[in-house]
Model the fold of this input.
Amino acid sequence: MGHTSENRNELLARVRRIGGQVKSVEKALLEEQECSKVLQQISAIRGAINGLMVEILEDEVKLHILSPTARANSDQARAADELIEVLRTYLK
Done:
């Protein structure tokens, strides 16, 4: 994942926020908070994980699947953009 070094700090910040969210769920469970609050926190974690996954998948598609010689408006570039949009929608 050498290409992630470009935005490594941003990715790590996201992972750290997700870690904080997980600790918050742990605390909520220990404090026996209402199920609805715990479920809401879990849902937020799932959204954050999905967002992280889409970002890494987008880089994967653009840097490893899409040909480096593909032009911005080529069929291949449009197909890659379409795939990324489907992933964003699916993982929302």
In short: The helical segments are 8-30, 35-65, 75-90. Residues 35-65 form the longest helix (31 residues).
